[in-house]
């Protein structure tokens, strides 16, 4: 059964969650004039939301991103991910994004919390091991901070790379696209992509760099990017010398979103291939009306010989915890 849950704080920020895919359906917060609006690009109606195929606000997994040829080898065995995408996109067609999670609620003086719980059975969607998964969303009472925490443990070695696929648009109710949004990513190394898959680690420079904040549109339509991925769709390795390695700003609404994470990587995706949905701006979904900042391990590292540290391998009975913290502010003139 599809259910929605709302978290609200003293600053009138609202986060609406859905149990299908342990998802973020919407986030509403104030602009420079105190106007409360959505900062997500999401479906206009709730009925269109639970099984949406662009993964709007979904938990993506067991492995976010693509797995080459929808196959991987682990402990001498080959596993195959049933997928409509040739490269096992976001955990395949039976992935976590479409599962019904159990729900627990928690509340104290510091935050309101929703906890989603799910047990993914051995070989579900092709992955080994019975995986126990807990995903927590905490909205803090007196500050605009949303903390997402992933806890997981498996009884077999398995593959795991979880993230949230929220589509951000700080303009408010997606009244404009995100091309004029200003983005900063503190990154010196990134993965280039060929045929939709990471193909190697390179210096983050030129048209790919956001180490100095600039508008997303500045290089998005460069022929090299458009011909390859139709927009940004690249993993960036995050430097750890700043508290917030990811900052997104909208100069009109003056909304600012700052992200920090325990994950080593963020995938920048600019809604290059929209789905056929009417969105919360009362129009059909369009390219470049949102930016996704998917904090995770490097995608497809299990099949990438240029990555030696396979962080996406979860050893049996080793419990992992990773987090993504989203901080919302309004910039003063």
Can you put this structure into words, describing what you see?
This protein has 333 residues and is mostly beta strands. It has one domain: Beta-galactosidase, Chain A, domain 5, CATH 2.70.98. Helices cover 3% and strands 39% of the residues. The chain is built from two helices and 24 strands. The strands form six sheets. A nine-stranded antiparallel beta sheet has the order 8-9-10-11-24-20-19-14-17. It has a five-stranded antiparallel beta sheet with strand order 16-15-18-21-22, with no helix packed on it. The longest helix is centred in the last third of the chain and has 7 residues, at 223-229.
Topology:
Layout (H helix, E strand, L loop, with lengths): L3 E5 L5 E5 L4 E8 L5 E3 L20 E2 L10 E4 L2 E4 L21 E6 L3 E10 L10 E10 L4 E10 L3 E2 L3 E2 L17 E4 L3 E6 L2 E7 L10 E2 L1 H4 L2 H7 L3 E5 L8 E4 L5 E7 L3 E5 L22 E5 L16 E2 L5 E11 L3
Antiparallel strand pairs: 1-2, 2-3, 3-4, 5-13, 6-7, 8-9, 9-10, 10-11, 11-24, 12-23, 14-17, 14-19, 15-16, 15-18, 18-21, 19-20, 20-24, 21-22
List keywords for this structure.
mainly beta, single chain, Beta-galactosidase, Chain A, domain 5
How far from one another are the termini? Answer: 46 Å
- CA-based gyration radius: 19 Å
User: Which topology does CATH recognise?
Assistant: Beta-galactosidase, Chain A, domain 5
> What structural class results from the helix and strand content?
mainly beta
Give the overall form: globular
Number of domains: 1
Q: Quick summary of this structure?
A:
By secondary structure, the chain is mainly β.
